[in-house]
Structures are given as structure tokens and as C-alpha cells.
Write a structure and sequence with these properties.
This protein is α/β, with parallel strands linked by helices and 473 residues long. The chain has a domain at 117-193 and 339-358. The protein has helices at residues 16-32, 57-80, 90-96, 133-143, 149-156, 161-170, 181-186, 188-194, 233-243, 262-265, 279-289, 303-306, 311-317, 342-349, 351-358, 371-394, 404-412; strands at residues 6-9, 42-46, 86-89, 101-103, 117-120, 125-128, 175-177, 200-207, 224-228, 247-252, 269-273, 294-297, 322-327, 396-403, 436-438, 441-445, 450-452, 455-456. The chain has a seven-stranded mixed sheet with strand order 8-14-13-12-9-10-11. The protein has a five-stranded mixed sheet with strand order 1-2-3-17-18. The chain has a three-stranded antiparallel sheet with strand order 4-16-15, with no helix packed on it. Helix 2 (57-80) links the parallel strand 2 (42-46) and strand 3 (86-89).
Length: 473
Amino acid sequence: MSRKSSIIIESSATPASEDTHVRRFLAAMARRSGSECAIGSDVSFCGSGSLSSIFPVSDFAAAAVGAAGLAVADFVTAAFGARPHVQVDRRLASLWFGSSLRPIDWTLPALWDPIAGDYETRDGWIRLHTNAPHHRAAALSVLGAAPDRHAVGAAVARWKADDLETAIVGNKGCAAAMRSLSEWQTHPQGLAVTREPLIDARATDDLAQPVSAATCDRPLHGVRVLDLTRVLAGPVATRFLAGLGADVLRIDPPTWDEPGVVPDVTLGKRCARLDLRDAEDRARLIELLSRADILVHGYRPDALENLGLGTGLRRETRPGLVDVSLNAYGWTGPWRHRRGFDSLVQMSVGIADAGMRALGRDRPTPLPVQALDHATGYLLAAAAVRGLRERLETGRGFEGRISLARVAELLASAPIAETAGNLGAAGEADWSDTNEATDFGIARRLRSPLLIGTAPLQWDRPASRLGSAAPMW
């Protein structure tokens, strides 16, 4: 017998309006994560406070963490019979959607390149994403501008927003013109994304030895996760899996770096480098894949295929593989191959415009945190754990796909209402009792936002530098 997962909101800590949003978001997320049909459990929410936004971002954060927790509870139930209770701390979930790290006697590098940001065009606004050197070069080349914000601003002002977006994207750069919610809803890509499921998931026909779970407290101990993701959404997913005991090996290209986020997202992982354009390194990756249980990747839809690492090869190399991927603008439609990031998607889908209009401001007003990335990360993790449950129960492989744009649509479907924000900065009670000896210096880490039974997320390794480990299990 099975029953649907039931949800308890601790009313003493959570106002009724937040209750409604959390319930609705979690129902959508858990249903698409496969939890609705699992043996039921209660998930409760504690903690209080909200991030300042016209969208219910803190409710969204709590629901995303809850959906991942429910997926783990499903897996533990399938493995051991007894179902653990899931508890989400709403305050801590909101704080984790910002940064989970507080350096001690050192400073985190800047999150953004000096050129990155919003610029006014002849007919609106555009955001340039220039954190990667090649994306920065692409934008500057189109603009014919020196690498200086004033020069870039003057050059951008001569363009129409859509024309500049098209030119930069066509030059293999990253940019997004600001559109309204209604403009996105009638845009060809917006229409395509609307027809996509929140999580596109299916079991595959290839069979392998069923995966086993270690313990209720560390259910993913011994599970190997090959991480081919960068920046935020994918790394958030694999950080969560590492917090359940998984052996996560992250692979980056030889020169890639993202110093503003690496100390936050490499917690619990080993980080190595391979050049997938090199035959020897590509063969090494295939060997790693042959012994992986989960693959998480954030390449654009055709990128792995172009490298000779398409779905067929991955399935042949590792039957039973749990293959989970993310994309920025969706898996169908004219923009399915477009490069994108959270901040760009917020501009494209109308979130930044809605914030500007609702608050009466004169420039784009995005979310207070990169909530699309973080929520997508937890949903990717939920999909991966769902895939493990499939393999545990049937030995079959699994594929899951999620996009930032579809996750944004779920958030933007909530009624717009200004929330002043009463979360406040992280206080002493929010931080772990022990220091973390990261590769960058001693730091404090936020306490786990999730309890599965009585077990919090816990990580076996401190945050490390990219390329600090060998590409081996």
C-alpha cells in the first residue's frame, strides 16, 4: 500500500500566507520529483523570516529543499522499509540560497566581473554576463568597446536591446534583453518552455546491478557521482548529494575557474581537470563514467554529443546510469541551445521587469538571491535520488532533465506581493559549531537546512580548489 506524502507546516513559526505558497510549490516539485506516488511521509517546516522580494522566494527555497528531502526519504524507505520524517528549516534554506560560507580572516573573491551587469539600451535594458573570459571577449568584440564600464555603457546605449542580444549571442557570448512577464509568455521560447514538464524524467531500458543504500543516516555512502557542472545550479545539486555521503568527483576544463563561488559549492567534493577535446583525457572520462552511478551535467543539449559523449555512448559505457542534466532556456524551442545563467533568465522571463515595475524603480530589479539556480540544484538532486530509487527497485537506468527557465515559470506563477523581508543576516545560531579548513582558509558553514529523520546533511571534505585532485575514483 502507498499513500501520498503529507505536508505539515508548523503554524507557530510560519504565517498562513507562507503556508499556502510552500504547499503549492512543494506539491508541484514533489509531484514532478516522483514523491507523490511514493510511500507517504510528513514533511514539516520550522524557522521563520523571508527574503525581501515581490516573489515568495523564501517559500520557494523551503519547498525546493523539502522536495529534495522527500526524494531522499523515498529512497531510504525503499532501501530499509522504515520511512524517516523530513524537516526543513525555512530560515536556513533561505540563507543557503545566498551563501553558505563565512570566511575567517580572509575574503571571498568578487562574484561578478567588473563589466557584468545591466545596461540601458536605446529602447530598454540588457544584461551582459562576462564572468568567463571568452564571454567577456565576445561582448566587447560586438560592442567595439574597451574593457571599461563607462565605455561599455556608451556603446550599449547605441543599440536596441533585442538587436544587441542577438549579436552577442551570435558571437558565442551571453546576454539577455529585459522582457516583461507577458512578453515572455507570448515569446516562442516562452511558449515552448510552458509546454515542458518541470522535471522531464524517465526510466531507461538498460539494466545494471541494483544500487544499494549504506545507512539511513548516510544513504548515499559509496555512490559515485561524476559532476560535469559549473557555476551554481549543478554544483548545488552535487553538493547536496555529497552531504548524503556520495563520493562526488567534479571535472573541469584545464583553465576554468569561478573564484567567487568555488569555496561555497565544492564542499564535500574532489575536484579534478580534464580536457574533453583531448582524446586521452576523453578516454579517461569514459573510464570514470564506466564506474559512476550518477552523472550530473550542465552542458548545452548538443555539447556532449559534439564531443563524442552522446547519450548512446553513455548508456553503453555505464548501463543503469542515473543521467541528470540541466539547461538554461529549456529543452525545446528556438533557444534550447542558448547559453544562459540565472541572472540572464531572470531578465528574459520577466522577473527583473516585474520587480522594477512593482517597486517603482528605474532599473531592472531581480531576485535578492540566485533562486533559480539554487532551486534547480535541489530539484536536480531530487531527480538524481529518484533515479537511484529506480535502480534500487528495478536495476534500470534513469534520465532526468530540468531547465532554469521552467523553474522560473513556477516561481513567477505565484501572485506578486511585496515582502519587506525580515530574514536578517545569519547570526551565531545559524552557523555550525566547528570551523571548516577549506583550501582558501578557515571558514564557518551554515548549519544544515534539512533533517532526514534525525540526520542533518554532513560533508566529509572541506571546500577545495578546482583541479586539486587527480581524475580518479
